[in-house]
Structure prediction request, 88 residues.
Amino acid sequence: MDWSQVSSCFSGKRGDALVSAAQAEVVKKIGKGSFTLPTVQVDATTVCTGDDCTYAAIAKHLNKDNNLRNNDEDDDDDAGIRYFFASK
Prediction:
């Protein structure tokens, strides 16, 4: 991957548009209040934040009721895991 193209996109109007869209998605899913980064949600429920986000903490919620879901489709309504992180 050519990093100069990625950097150019990120620094331009498209990067601003993508960050704005991401911000709107975070507000929609978490709200406008303060939250710790990273914040990980499984099935729309926050399962860990900050240093508590370990593999074991997340896996515990994925295995809840022994019901792992297969999310092969790129459909936000069906997504099982959401990971929020800082950018720009």
User: Anything to note?
Assistant: The CA atoms of residues 26 and 62 lie 21 Å apart. DSSP finds three helices and three strands in the chain. The two ends are 20 Å apart (CA to CA). Confidence is low (pLDDT under 50) at residues 71-79.
